[in-house]
Amino acid sequence: MKEHSKNYDAIVVGGGHNGLVAACYLAKAGKSVLLLEAHEELGGATTSVKPFPEYDARLSRYSYLVSLLPDQIVADLGINFRTLDRPVASYTPYRKDGRDEGLLVASDWNEDTAESFVRLTGSDREAAAWREFYGEIATLAERLAPSMLQPLKSAAQLKTETGLPDLWRALMEVPIGEIIRERFQDDIVRGVVLTDALIGTFVTANDLQANRCFLYHLIGNGNGQWRVPQGGMGALVKELLRVAEASGVEIIRKARVVSLESGGNGVRVETEAGDAYRGKDLLFAAAPQILERLRNQGRQADEDVGAPRKSLEGSQLKINMLVKQLPRLKSGVDPRIAFAGTFHVNESFSQLEEAYAQASRGEMPLPLPLELYCHTLTDPSILSDALNAKGFHTLTLFGLHTPAALFDANPAQATALAQERALAGLNQYLLDPIESVLAPCSDGTLAIEAKSPLDLEKDIFLPRGNIFHRDLDFPFLDESPSTQQWGAETDDPHIYLAGAGAQRGGGVSGIAGHNAAMALLAKSQ
Ligand SMILES: Cc1cc2nc3c(=O)[nH]c(=O)nc-3n(C[C@H](O)[C@H](O)[C@H](O)COP(=O)(O)OP(=O)(O)OC[C@H]3O[C@@H](n4cnc5c(N)ncnc54)[C@H](O)[C@@H]3O)c2cc1C
Question: Is the pLDDT of residue 307 over 60?
């Protein structure tokens, strides 16, 4: 083991975007910071890659849209990172009375959207319910979002401060499925609302865990808009890396931490490569389950820091595609409209509930609920000029209710089955089957890659493929006594959680990194 003598103010473990955000804040505050990343490449779930080497197309391989990243973090750190509006929020194709149609929801409410609701539901009642519901949520989002970068408040305090007690009760205290059933009548409309509660969260609509997921999908940056990262998600990492290096953060890649000790004098970590580093404090920006394993190593049973908190399995399938042209739709809608926002397939309320029931029984859902979106319609910069000139596009498919357990017995076969069902689901609504537009590769394959929850664990260390590291928490303290100030503290005064698994972590937000850095800085004041 090579012992390095420098004693850093802080060691950050994990160079995903949260680890980088934490490191930047600390270095800018004058702390000496060492960041250790297991992989050669930084970014974790926020990387962009060229998955099809012969095509110059840099896809956001894992996460792909941004909502939760507060403008304040972008401004504080001086990162040059832009997100772009999507003109369309969603398009949901359906078949009614033998005709192919679609529910189109523009990002800003307009006549086309109103008419689209009437065509689906036969009256303007559902449209009015939609506007009322999301109008109330927008007010809540605006009032709640600033608290994400402040010390934790109690539920009671935030409920009073946000001044919407009925909506608070509906979103935080009653299962979201009940609220959706109460406020909406149509199965498809209900499903479009419900999907925000199920991204990366394997539960029924009747589980309060779905409410947590729903909240995170609607309060981002005070407006809940899901925006396109210009240049792909990797552009965020590139900028954070630039600022981290300019601020003096020492970054070591291929430095997977395999051992951790903590005592009165601070922390000591060892890497797989055989290096040992010391620091006064440690910010752990990889999954908390990994931290618990490291802390438990070599301890006596009676000193056990405890088994990792039980968390749901990851439950999504991510499919990245490069197409020669956008496929035409049976409904006749322009694909540049249909795929610009979130394209929902097999995601009516009843289909989502049925898919959950099937997957809980150990069956791959049929039909498989999924959503699709085209990055390049909003931001063509991730493709070379030559590919843009030829009309190529990228498509991102996110399958729901495909929990890790479905892949354990035979990962390759299960992934192939999930992909087959996802593409078949999509093809129901396409004139050009998706396979006919996928870009061909010279080895005879097509430009498509699928990542199951098990792949996410293998490739980027997400425990059982949970995209938020572990179950999301509500962004406030419950009524039980707590020593938490920032949602980053652990029971070791030298160790902080700085990644998605911290309270108020989850998603591409940098909030967990910011809050861990604030917790550490508050201590040293
Ligand atoms: C397929 C997918 C799609 C998603 N889509 C979206 C989306 O569109 N929008 C959104 O907001 N969120 C999305 N998410 C969630 C979001 O990407 C994550 O919650 C977030 O990026 C987590 O960031 P992080 O920095 O906390 O952790 P991570 O990105 O997980 O980074 C942790 C880092 O720690 C490193 N590491 C792990 N163990 C060790 C160790 N022992 N030693 C050293 N380093 C270690 C890892 O290599 C990794 O680089 C998605 C996630 C996935 C997987």
Answer: no
d(CA 27, CA 64) in angstroms, rounded, equals 28
Q: What domains, with CATH codes, occur in the chain?
A: 2-46+232-311+473-523 (3.50.50.60), 83-229+312-464 (3.90.660)
Dist CA 115 CA 10 (whole Å): 56
Percent of the chain surpassing pLDDT 70: 97
In this structure, the strands spanning 33-36 and 250-252 are parallel
Cα of 403 vs centre of ligand 1, distance in Å, is 18
Confidence (pLDDT) at 308: 53
The label of the residue with tokens 């439950």 reads 315
d(CA 52, CA 34): 34
Task: Find out whether 83 and 237 touch, Cβ atoms under 8 Å.
Answer: no
Q: How far apart are CA 199 and CA 469, in angstroms?
A: 13
Whether 70 contacts 507, CB under 8 Å: no
For residue 14, the ligand 1 atom closest to its alpha carbon is 34
Pairing state between β 448-451 and 317-323: antiparallel
CA 122 to ligand 1 center in whole angstroms: 43
Predicted local distance difference test score (pLDDT) of residue 265: 87
Q: Among 47, 221, 270, 461, which is best to mutate for testing ligand 1, by the most ligand atoms less than 8 A from CB?
A: 461
For 142, residues 6+ apart whose C-beta sits below 8 A from its C-beta are: 222, 223
- Reported as a single tens digit per residue, the pLDDT across 234-263 is 999 999 999 999 999 999 999 999 999 999
> Residue 19, Cβ neighbours under 10 Å: how many?
31
